[in-house]
Amino acid sequence: MTVAIIMGSASDAGVMDGAVEVLREFSVPVEVRALSAHRTPDDVIAFARAAQGRGVKVVIAAAGGAAHLAGVVAAATPLPVIGVPIAVGGLGGLDSLLAMVQMPKGVPVATVAVDGARNAALLAVRILALSDSTLAAAVQQRREDMAAQVRRADEEIQARYSGAAG
Question: What pTM was computed for the model?
Answer without folding.
Answer: 0.93
